[in-house]
């Protein structure tokens, strides 16, 4: 026996393939990516060809994530490949946008002057539907209120040959899983939970709208070569423990920034015990640890789901390609996590952050210790994270058992189906009946309370209270805009059972409830079955307060920026919700001027610990952040923001970058950035800079004037300098790092990535 190096083995394999000229190639078979699109085929041949080149170059076993990512390289020969260091130019297979982010993406795409999108693209109307009284009425109201936007998206998609999913059809990620995701594919989506498609073995990444526009325009997508975190699953999931508990546990281990710059790759024998939709749940909530995406290897459970959704051809094709849809033996990971599913307990995460993980058996104790409001006001199941047939069936089994004991829910209880397909099926199969019979309220197939589209009436603003959801995100005020709402995240099973307990201290695994007959009973383990989209010109009314055509941002004037005021020095956590709030602002996502009135209004000013109250350094008066920024802009004064760690975490919304740019900002200088937001800022022509020494954050005073030195020789890897002029006349200089590459520096100089693209299109 001799050991051949990977390189030698590959060379021999190709020689053999070359000699046998008639050997079939994987690309000889044409399988459509989706039943809904003609002429767009799965391109496994590109992966095969790219990997042959990459294997020769790297000469080492590859992880699954590497195989799919490098399999989509634009130039496998010439591309630098170093995990965590190089920037990859990639060719995603498709693009998905939700309605809130799609407005700006479509407006930008229109200004690029293209006839049609270079890759299949879909737009999904799910974020703008407010939950109030129940699915049918809420949907009708939303269609009325958002008519202009829906009409624009419908006619725009028709004009440019994009897929359109009307309001009520379902939530983007569930629709993608049911119709478009496929093993080994690569997709970008203008929503941070795009990784949901990793449940079907896809590299699916949340991006800003500008990235989506690039790919729609046929420009390669740029991504820092991801590190890979391996999560080895052993044992078997069962009882009250669900796939959601895997990601709740992982979030507790890795925290909200532990996945930054990495793909989380699940593997091991435990994977086979997870349903495909369960794997999607795990990947979906991987966004909460900042991961680039999460994914699973192709397996029998994926094939079952593909078959159940009438895509048996894709399952068979993936089976033929399965050697490239799993990691190589001996693949190396940047970090390793072991989880024994047989020992994993249900978890409840929160409040206020999704990485505060508490095992169910310790939760009541934590509630008391931390004085969290014990009464459970509302229990909410569904959303894109947990709305599969399996999720709904298991929750319905709990509701049925409670009904048998004569119980109604004690807390309010809402159900959000992820798609019309799921809703219609669970109506036919009785799960909706089971929920309604115990007092559940079925909401529209849309984001609703998950994105703050919730006209909540049961508590007043500021009143401390607890809610529990099977959603993914629980930052302060996310669901109901009430900063005193303690939002916890758990599996749909735990959420449903707790609705009957009515208290955060109720443990459905160990505690009993009293039935209407006065007899105590304990819930049985939940059970449930795993399985069962316009040519019109898009017109924008100049008087519209919902849509506004974009004007290009000004290019850099080539001068050293001097004497810039600090608009705000942000203290502590600053998510994209703090920078560009959701809720009532969502309706302005197609109108940059209007939505910019929410810029940074949630961020806390380090000077006075207040939100939306900053000193105007020219007039000396205090005012709102957007108004002060606009004052500076209208006087021709550029400004900077100073921020803390992980600035811009959370939702991928590009408005958080567009707004400061629109209001005249030049630089955002922070201790560290969340990946998507950093890229979004660069795309809009802003300087995204980090303190070389994190403690230098403390040296900047909110009243400082600053110069940014070194831009005349702005280059990759070369630090810039922040020159501070304090109010008392003293001065100091601090080194600033950045992650701009040559291409991104060109975006800054051109004023934005889109400006550069438009100039190239005109041949300038
Ligand atoms: Fe909608 Fe919530 Fe899913 Fe985002 S996380 S797509 S807001 S349901």
UniProtKB/TrEMBL annotation:
GO terms for molecular function: 4 iron, 4 sulfur cluster binding; aconitate hydratase activity; metal ion binding. It is an enzyme of class 4 (lyase). Its EC number is 4.2.1.-. Signal peptide: none annotated. It catalyses: citrate = D-threo-isocitrate. The keyword Metal-binding applies. Binds 1 [4Fe-4S] cluster per subunit. Pfam families: Aconitase (PF00330), Aconitase_C (PF00694). GO terms for biological process: tricarboxylic acid cycle. It is found in: Mitochondrion. Residues 565-693 form the Aconitase A/isopropylmalate dehydratase small subunit swivel domain. Keywords: Iron, Iron-sulfur, Lyase, Metal-binding, Mitochondrion, Transit peptide, Tricarboxylic acid cycle. Belongs to the aconitase/IPM isomerase family. NCBIfam families: aconitase_mito, PRK07229.1. This is Aconitate hydratase, mitochondrial. The lineage of its organism: Eukaryota, Fungi, Dikarya, Basidiomycota, Agaricomycotina.
């Amino acid at each position: 026996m001799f050991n051949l190096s990977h390189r030698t083995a590959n060379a021999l394999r190709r020689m053999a393939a070359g000699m046998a000229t008639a050997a079939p190639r994987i690309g000889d078979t044409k399988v459509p990516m989706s039943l809904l699109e003609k002429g767009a085929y799965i391109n496994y041949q590109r992966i095969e060809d790219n990997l042959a080149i990459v294997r020769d170059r790297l000469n080492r076993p590859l992880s699954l994530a590497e195989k799919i990512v490098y399999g989509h390289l634009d130039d496998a020969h010439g591309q630098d490949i170093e995990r965590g260091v190089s920037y990859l130019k990639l060719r995603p297979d498709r693009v998905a946008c939700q309605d809130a982010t799609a407005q700006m993406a479509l407006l930008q795409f229109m200004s690029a002057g293209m006839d049609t999108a270079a890759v299949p693209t879909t737009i999904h109307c799910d974020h703008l539907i407010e939950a109030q009284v129940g699915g049918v009425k809420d949907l009708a109201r939303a269609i009325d209120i958002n008519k202009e936007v829906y009409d624009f998206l419908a006619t725009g998609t028709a004009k440019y040959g994009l897929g359109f999913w009307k309001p009520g059809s379902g939530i983007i990620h569930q629709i993608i899983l049911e119709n478009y995701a496929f093993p080994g594919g690569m997709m970008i989506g203008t929503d941070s939970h795009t990784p949901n498609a990793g449940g079907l073995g896809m590299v699916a990444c949340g991006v800003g709208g500008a990235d989506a526009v690039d790919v729609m325009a046929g420009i390669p997508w740029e991504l820092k070569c991801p590190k890979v975190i391996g999560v080895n699953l052993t044992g078997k999931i069962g009882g009250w423990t669900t796939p959601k508990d895997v990601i709740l546990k992982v979030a507790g281990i890795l925290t909200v920034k532990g996945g930054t710059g990495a793909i989380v790759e699940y593997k091991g024998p435990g994977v086979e015990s997870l349903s495909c939709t369960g794997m999607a749940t795990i990947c979906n909530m991987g966004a909460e640890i900042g991961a680039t995406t999460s994914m699973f290897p192709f397996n029998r459970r994926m094939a079952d789901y593909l078959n159940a959704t009438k895509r048996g051809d894709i399952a068979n094709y993936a089976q033929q390609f399965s050697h490239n849809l799993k990691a190589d033996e001996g693949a190396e990971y940047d970090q390793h996590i072991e989880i024994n599913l047989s020992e994993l307990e249900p978890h409840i995460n929160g409040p206020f952050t999704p990485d505060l993980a508490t095992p169910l058996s310790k939760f009541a104790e934590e509630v008391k210790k931390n004085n969290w409001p014990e009464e459970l006001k509302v229990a909410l199941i569904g959303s894109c994270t947990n709305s599969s047939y399996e999720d709904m069936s298991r929750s319905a089994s709990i509701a049925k058992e409670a009904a048998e004991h004569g119980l109604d829910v004690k807390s309010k209880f809402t159900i959000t189906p992820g798609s019309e397909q799921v809703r219609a099926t669970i109506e036919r199969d009785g799960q909706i009946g089971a929920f309604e019979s115990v007092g559940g309220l079925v909401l529209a197939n849309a984001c609703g309370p998950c994105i703050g589209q919730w006209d909540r009436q049961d508590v007043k603003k500021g009143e401390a209270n607890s809610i529990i959801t099977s959603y993914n995100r629980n930052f302060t005020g996310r669901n109901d805009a009430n900063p005193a709402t303690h939002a916890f995240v758990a599996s749909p099973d735990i959420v449903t059972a707790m609705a009957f307990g009515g208290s955060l201290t109720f443990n459905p695994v160990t505690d009993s409830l009293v039935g209407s007959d006065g007899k105590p009973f304990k819930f049985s383990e939940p059970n449930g079955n795993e399985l069962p989209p316009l040519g019109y010109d898009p017109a924008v009314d100049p008087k519209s307060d919902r849509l506004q055509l974009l004007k290009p941002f000004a290019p850099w004037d080539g001068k050293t920026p001097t004497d810039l005021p600090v608009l705000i020095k942000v203290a502590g956590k600053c998510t994209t919700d703090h920078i560009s709030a959701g809720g009532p602002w969502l309706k302005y996502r197609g109108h940059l001027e209007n939505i910019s009135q929410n810029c940074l209004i949630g961020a806390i000013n380090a000077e006075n610990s207040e939100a939306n109250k900053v000193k105007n350094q020219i007039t000396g008066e205090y005012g709102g952040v957007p108004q002060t920024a606009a004052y500076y802009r209208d006087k021709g004064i550029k400004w900077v923001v100073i921020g803390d760690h992980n600035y811009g975490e959370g939702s991928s919304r590009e408005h958080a970058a567009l707004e400061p740019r629109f209001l005249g900002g030049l630089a955002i200088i922070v201790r560290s950035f969340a990946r998507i937001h950093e890229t979004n800022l660069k795309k809009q022509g802003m300087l995204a800079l980090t303190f070389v020494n994190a403690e230098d954050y403390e040296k900047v005073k909110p009243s400082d004037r600053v110069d940014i030195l070194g831009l005349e020789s702005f280059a990759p890897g070369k630090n810039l300098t922040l020159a501070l002029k304090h109010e008392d006349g003293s001065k100091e200089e601090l080194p600033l790092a950045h992650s701009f590459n040559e291409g991104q520096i060109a975006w800054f100089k051109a004023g934005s990535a889109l400006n550069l693209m438009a100039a190239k299109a005109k041949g300038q």
